[in-house]
Amino acid sequence: MKWLLLCFFLQVVVPKQHKADTTLGILILVNKEHKLPEGYRPHDLVPIDEAYNKGVMNLLRSEAATAFARLCAQASEDGIVLWNRSAYRSDTVQRQLYENAVKRRGEEGAGKYTAKPGHSEHQTGLTVDINSTHPSFGKTSEGVWLKEHAYLFGFIERYPLEKEHITGYAYEPWHYRYVGTEIATYIVENKLTLEEYYERKREHAHVPAR
Hints:
Helices cover about 40% and strands about 15% of the residues. It has about 210 residues and is of the alpha+beta class. The protein has one domain (about 15-205): Muramoyl-pentapeptide Carboxypeptidase, domain 2. The longest helix has 23 residues, at about 90-115. The relative contact order is 0.13.
């Protein structure tokens, strides 16, 4: 009986683990269910333009770094100041952050805000925390501007409000992920998360041709 209960717990409570598909390039899906290979590090990491960086962790993949500079430059023209707070993180750094979060919040609390090593989007080199790490950022002029314009430069708000049950993480209006302008536009226009985008792709793939 105890064994059956344990199996049920593992199936319902513990997310299934899959290997993140690194062949997807900028569209790689990394979350609580999809884990990067041990020691994964993108080959094309470059420093973020100094004009738009205030973080020690200041690397992005080349395409994302170029797009982020364009995003910040346009924001500046509109009177909005944006900058990187934290970009690429290795799994070693993420492990330290997660362990510290567990000490502060406990394992359940840590899991709402901090990814385990290998499960962090930051390790993809496609994610940037912008300006702040407080939920109130979403109501600032900078947060509102990002919400309205980031997709035009290929970035999506990765953990939106009221999508926590899908993404697995609490609302983070500062956390933006690069997916390219075409996919970002589709995701924003359809009010999707990256998880929902892939679910929709799977559903369409199983629809027989007419």
